[in-house]
Amino acid sequence: MAVALKELSIRGDFRTTVEYLIKLLETQVFADNNFTTGWLDTLIRNRLTAERPKVSFAVICGAVRKAHVVSEECWTEHKRIVDKGQVPAPDTLKTGFGVDFIYEGVRYSFTTARSSVTTWALYL
Fold first, then answer.
1. Could you tell me the CA-to-CA distances from 81 to 68, 71, 74, 85 in Å, in that order?
2. How far is CA 97 from the centre of its chain?
3. Would 114 disulfide with which of 17, 30, 78, 95, CB 3.0-4.6 Å?
4. pLDDT, tens only, 95-107
């Protein structure tokens, strides 16, 4: 089950409980089937947390994710217009996007460029 959850966390979004569940499943108490609700209460009281990714990794992933969402919205709009038999505006095919967000109280501003279906370039 832990392996399946690890696989899920790769495909899932940021900030889910999957990492926390993986940590619980990998404890020796859980593996030995010696857990109780009291054990869970102790973990909660001690604030057991899942490991967080490095800030640089989280920021890069966040920038690519936000740019990918905007890119997909543009592509969807482009297809919708073409399906109606109309000529879409050139900006529905753009590959460069500005991305701004705040992570852990720090503002990040990227310029992103999609160079292929699976490749993004990020510029600070």
1. 20, 16, 11, 7
2. 18
3. 95
4. 999 999 998 889 9
